[in-house]
Amino acid sequence: MRGDMPAATVRLERLYRRALEHGDELGVCWAGSGLVQVDMITGRWQRARQVAHDLMVAVRHSPNPPAVQVPTLSAAALVDSHLGEGERAWTYATDAIAIAERAGAWSPLTDARAIRGFVALSRGDAHQAHTELGAALDRSRELGILEPIWSHLVWYDIDALVELGDLDQACALADDLRARGERLDRPFPLATAARGHALVLAARGDLAAARAELDRALVEHDRLGWPFERARTELTHGMVLRRDKQKRAARETLHRALATFEDLGASLWAAKVRAEISRIGGRPAPTGSLTATERRVAELAADGHTNREVAALLFLSTKTVAAHLTSVYAKLGVRSRTELSRQLRPPQ
Asked: For residue 249, with 0-12 CB atoms within 10 Å meaning exposed, 13-18 middle and 19 or more buried, which class applies?
């Protein structure tokens, strides 16, 4: 609950291995589902997908009580919702809700409804997102779950409310989240609250104040280290910069978000970034030839390697790889890895 993801990862890995060794199905389920959540937060989405798949196989092949079924279904739904498998995620989350309701297990309902809300938000259905996320947030409060990290998706209701035009309620929710973050000194609520306030301010036309909030959010993201959340803030930042007629800065910021979403496999969110880039208008003229390192990074990315794979091959950090790709995109006037591949690897 303190947000110490490295420590949580180590402990959950140990518990998961131990449960597997002892054939403890309940332990495997709870440690595995916890590991999935931490891996999704920290950007290890492929391992999260594998663990969620293994849990689902175990559930399908043996009778299990709700205490095993619900977290397993929620873990699978969480992974699929982020990877753009919305229909399957919705089905898993709905099944988890039905089982939890029959068992009278009210706490898991919060996570499952929040996942359905995230699916709706990813699809652009703000009304459905608010229906799910608002209910999940209310349930969280009823249960006394006051730590924002415990069920972080519920706070995406701020985004849904802004899209629905309910700016006062969105602002109040961001104020509440900021107060919690300041009281607990947690970077997640502070970063998310700042992004929420920026959305409200941008909707009201105060772009300068929105940019200041986003700068504040990015400082907290440096402490937080959650790649998907940072990319969401960069997407918002790029949208605000575009509206403020800062085309070059907007394009660079959006390309950073796009690189992260593509690297993670967040297909629906990558599509949102591409749509935003297309609104900037025109293509930047090439600003110079690529450096040797930029060209090597670009070639590996064009060949289909992820940022992590490129980093390992070139002995660079993933942040350095992402920065090089941002520069490459700007210089070559491309918007995605697909366009990069077409430019560097034209058909013969």
From this structure: middle
Q: CA–CA separation, 21 vs 91, rounded Å?
A: 31
Task: Using alpha carbons, select from 71, 75, 100 the residue that is nearest to residue 88.
Answer: 75
Distance in angstroms (rounded) separating the CA atoms of residues 321 and 37: 26
Which is more confidently placed, 105 or 219? 219
Q: Kindly report the CATH number that applies to the domain delimited by 1-105.
A: 1.25.40
- Break the chain down into helix, strand, coil percent, rounded to 5: 80, 0, 20
Tell me the domain boundaries of the chain.
1-105, 106-205
Alpha-carbon span 278 to 251, nearest angstrom: 10
- Cα–Cα distance between 16 and 43 in angstroms, integer? 19
Least Cα distance to 254 among 230, 279, 274, 282 occurs for 274
Q: What is the pLDDT of residues 316-337, one digit of tens each?
A: 888 788 888 888 888 887 878 8
Q: Is 108 helix (H, G, I), strand (E, B) or coil?
A: helix
Tokens 């890995």 correspond to: 13
Residue whose token pair is 């498998």? 85
CATH code linked to domain 106-205: 1.25.40
Q: Is the pLDDT of residue 286 over 60?
A: no
Same fold, 1-105 and 106-205: yes
